[in-house]
Amino acid sequence: MEPEPDSGKKSLTRRDVLKLGLAAGAAAAAAAGRPLHDRVTAAQLVPPAHSGHGDFSGTVGDVDLSRFDPTEFLTAFDWGQESAGPDGRTLREWEVVAVDREIEIAPGVFFPAWTYNGQVPGPTFRCVEGDRLRFRFFNRSSHPHTIHFHGFHPPSMDGVEPLVQPGEEFIYEFTARPFGVHPYHCHVMSLKKHIHKGLYGTLIIDPPGGRPPARELVMVMNAFDPNFDGENEVYAVNTVAFHYMKHPVQVRAGELVRVYLVNITEFDLVNSFHLHAGMFRLYRTGTSLDFFEWTDTVTMGQGERAVLEFILEEPGRYMFHAHQSEFAELGWTGFFEALA
Ligand SMILES: [Cu+2]
């Protein structure tokens, strides 16, 4: 391992660790007899700086998209089982199961996640302000977990206590308010561990009259610490490093695009979203229909979220990435592809 150029001692950079992780992932995949496409060869261990013209992606190959496809996740809104509640309000019901599952965060890099419904991020739940929401939570994991939603609800429904032990269940029920974008996550100590391991997702509460028609997308800024040293080595939106470089997010030139953006990144103080060649209207927390600012970059602490609205005016590829360059180079970079 090369020492850092400006330091007297040998130290592993986060990027070195990503490379080591790729190698370890390849060895593990081979040992586990995974199919060939899951394995990583030495030729695939290409650091971003040397990956060639026009390719910022520091990974080669693809994750197993049949297990989790970040492109499908973008538009997977789960409205739950809808019925008329006793008071005439719409009742929406979901089943949420906490389950331990290994996930693939970059080609050949596996992470022993704790998940809601087997996926990271968890499902994007969606409803309208005033709906009655009922989440039946089953803990099939090996540790106690909860679901803590942001937004208004009785303190008894706050997901801090009781702890839901392995094999137990709990029903969270409350009325959806206020409209906006609200993260949800496990709230068991050690909090950073339970969140970082993958127990988080997004609850979107629509305004009673809805928002203007748009191409709608969910993006959860997240990161992973596969070597458990308390620092992230892999960054992404929606879990898989560089996924939207390899599979650009397709929209139409001239159409309104709406991104529900959440920052759940553990360990780092802030994360950010930057759009190239355009600007977006920023609705912080999504709780007002008047936009806060017209900008191309938004920076968020953990738990902050926003609605972004923009139009990509001309056909072509528009890059988007964290404006922490380090995060961008460790996976948090993608393209929108505006089609004519
Ligand atoms: Cu937990």
Low-pLDDT stretches: 1-10, 23-54
Number of helices: 5
The tally of strands reads: 21
Radius of gyration: 20 Å
Strand order of the largest sheet: 12-11-14-19-16-17
* First-residue to last-residue Cα separation: 47 Å
Strand content: 35-45%
Structural notes for this entry:
The chain has five helices and 21 strands. The protein has 340 residues and is mainly β. It has two domains: 70-206, Immunoglobulin-like; 215-339, Immunoglobulin-like (Sandwich), CATH 2.60.40. The longest helix has 18 residues, at 14-31. The chain is globular. 42% of the residues are buried. Residues 1-10 and 23-54 have low confidence and may be disordered. It binds copper (II) ion. The site of copper (II) ion has 6 residues, from loops.
Which terms would index this structure?
340 residues, mainly beta, 5-stranded mixed beta sheet, Immunoglobulin-like, binds copper (II) ion, disordered N terminus, 21 strands, 5 helices, single chain, 2 domains, 11% helix, 6-stranded mixed beta sheet
